[in-house]
Amino acid sequence: MQTLRRILLPGLVAAALLGGSGTPGVMAQAPSYAETIELITQLQKEKTFTNTITGPILDAILQGLIANDGAPPGANPEDGISDSEGLKKRLVGSSSTSRIQKQAAAAMEGGDGRLLELLYYTAQSTVPAFMDDDTLRSQVGGKKGTGAAIKKAIAKFWTNKSITTNLIECLEDYPPAQAAVLVDVISATWYRSSAHVYEQTTTSWASQSYWQIYHDGREIELAKRSVVVKLLAGQGYLTLPQQTDAQFIWSQGYYGYTKWPDIPIYWDPITWSASDVPGLIRLLGNTHYGAAARAELTALGY
Q1: Dihedrals φ, ψ of 226, to 5°?
Q2: Cα 191 from chain centre
Q3: For 72, how many CA atoms within 13 A lie in the half-sphere containing its CB?
Q4: Residues ≥6 apart with Cβ < 8 Å to 115
Q5: Alpha-carbon distance 80 to 137, whole Å?
Q6: pLDDT of residue 163
Q7: CA 99, 69, 114, 225 torsion: positive or negative?
Q8: Which residues of 134-159 are buried (b: 16+ CB within 10 A; e: fewer)?
Q9: Do 222 and 171 form a contact (C-beta atoms < 8 A)?
Q10: Contact, 6 vs 14, CB < 8 A?
Q11: Helix (DSSP H) and strand (DSSP E) numbers for the chain
Q12: Cross-strand bridge partners of residue 128
């Protein structure tokens, strides 16, 4: 029955199922943005989930998420649509907990299943697509604001009991270059009240600024919970933000004057401590992070 079903699947999905060798496996080349959308569409149509069908499709989708991080085709660069958020929205934005869990259970690799669940449980559409400068300034606390309310809201969101340490540790299964991209994808939210075709969403300067604040705050909260993210930053695979500015349309000196200056939002510094030691010890046997973990343990005096 599965053989017949494969014949009926679209060519791209069959490629994900068969790989380059004619046997079930991953795609030889990461799918394009449009191809990843096609794979997500096919996955959402599935009624049952198996390792032989769902697993390769999910693997190819996650490859597409990593490979297409950046401004997607069809998006206006001025609208700030980027970082695979459109793919992420399609993958987990309208799904249910039970469906996600069944898809995750059918993943070929445990890391893929946990990553899917992590994307689902950390999904947010907090940022309105089109907000004005007054609203942005209010959100960060006014002229002398520090973004305290935003930082508190982001931190509280990450205390959700569904966002478990086990899910966050899925990053350990991916090599550093891929994991660094996944940190960006996990940290990204998507715009609320977006266009039906997400990439055609029109956004304001203030909304893009607010989106960046949320993204950077989420990345900091992830780093607080993940030894791998700290290692990636230490190895130069990513740069953790220390400050994100709320930027207003007038703050750039348009029309010859500055009305509102940028308002800086400062993030908690990410540092190593004794609480990281168990995670570093667990990584000693990890192919991707063992050497870096050993070096950090030595630096900590262990």
Answers
A1: -130, 120
A2: 14
A3: 26
A4: 62, 170, 171, 182
A5: 19
A6: 97
A7: negative
A8: eebbebbbeeebebeebbeebeebbe
A9: no
A10: yes
A11: 15, 2
A12: 192
**Using CA atoms, how far apart are residues 296 and 302, in angstroms rounded to an integer?**
9
Q: Please name the residue that has the structure tokens 């991953």.
A: 26
Burial class (CB in 10 A: 0-12, 13-18, 19+), 292: buried
Query: Which residues partner with 264 through β-bridges?
Result: 245
Per-residue CA distances from 259 to 118, 195, 273 (Å): 41, 31, 43
**Residue 117 to residue 100: CA distance in whole angstroms:** 7
pLDDT (0 to 100) of residue 16? 52
Q: How far apart are CA 10 and CA 123, in angstroms?
A: 29
| Adjacent-strand bridge partners of 254 | none
The first and second tokens of residue 74, run together, are: 């069809």
pTM for this model (two decimals): 0.88
CA-derived radius of gyration, the chain:
21
Provide the residue type at 148 as one letter: A
Q: How many residues does the chain have?
A: 302
Neighbours of 251 (CB within 10 A): 18
Q: CA of 150: how far to CAs of 60, 110, 118, 127, 204, in Å? A: 35, 33, 21, 11, 19
* Nearest partner of 248 among 260, 257, 266, 265, judged by Cα: 260
CA–CA dist 79, 26 (Å, integer): 33
Q: Where are the domains of the chain?
A: 272-302
- Predicted local distance difference test score (pLDDT) of residue 84: 79
pLDDT < 50: residue spans in the chain: 1-10, 13-14, 17-18, 20-26, 251, 253
CA–CA distance, 243 with 264 (Å, rounded to integer): 6
Q: What is the pLDDT of residue 144?
A: 83
